[in-house]
Amino acid sequence: MQLSLRQCLLAEVLGTAILLIFGTGAAVVNEQTHALGHGGVATAFGLVVFLLIQSLGDTSGAHINPAVTVGFWAAGRFPARRVLPYVAAQLLGAVLGSASVKLIATPGSSLGATLPAHGIGQALGIETFLSFGLMLVILRVTSGSKEAGMLAGLAISATVALEALVGGPLSGASMNPARSLAPALLSGVWTGWWLYIVGPVAGALLAVAVNKLLQLKAPAA
C-alpha cells in the first residue's frame, strides 16, 4: 500500500528536525564543552543519518535533504509533483530542529552553521564534490538488489560521516541546503549561505549524470 503524501511529508519534517537536533546539536555541545571533538560531531551526523534511514526510509525514503530530493527527481526516481512539498517539509523540519538546538546554545552561538574556512570559491568546490560523492553513493546503493536493507543505510551514513570528518574543517561539509539554511536563519550568520544551496544541488545533479554513464551497457562484441 502506497503511503499518502501527508504521511511522507510528516516523516520528512520529523526526520530533518532530528537530523538538525543531533547533528548541529552535537556541534553546539562540542562548542560548549569540547567533549566530542570534530570526530565526534562527524560521527553524530553519520549515526543520526543511519537511524533515520532505517526508521523512516520505508515511509518517505528518508531524503531529509533538498539536494537528494532534486537528485532523485533528476534520476527519474521521484515524481516532479512531490519535489516542492518535500523541500518545504525538509526546510520546516530543519527550522524546527535548529530552534530546538537554540534552546541549549549560549548567546551568540552560530548553532552549528556551516562556514567557509578559506574563501567562498574553495568552499563551493568542496561542497559540490562532497555532495556529488554522497548522491552517487545513494544512487548506487539504492538500486537493484541493493535497494533495501541495512547495508544501504550503512553505506550512506558512513559516507556522511567520512565526508563530514574530512570536509568539515574546510566548508562545514553541509551537503544539505536545509541543514545550512536553518542555523543561518536562526543565528543570523549568513556568510556564504548561497554556496550551501548551489554546491549540494550541483553536486547531486552531477552525480545523476555520472551514474547514468556508469549504467551504460557495453556494446555487444
Automatic annotation (TrEMBL):
Domain of life: Bacteria
Localization, UniProt: Membrane
Membrane topology: Multi-pass membrane protein
One Pfam assignment: MIP
Principal location: membrane
The entry's keywords: Membrane, Transmembrane, Transmembrane helix, Transport
InterPro entries referenced in this protein's UniProt entry, alphabetically: Aquaporin-like (IPR023271), Aquaporin_transptr (IPR034294), MIP (IPR000425), MIP_CS (IPR022357)
Protein name per its UniProtKB record: Aquaporin
Assigned protein family: Belongs to the MIP/aquaporin (TC 1.A.8) family.
Gene3D superfamilies assigned to the protein according to its UniProt record, in alphabetical order: Glycerol uptake facilitator protein
Chain segments annotated as transmembrane: 9-29, 35-53, 83-105, 117-139, 151-173, 193-214
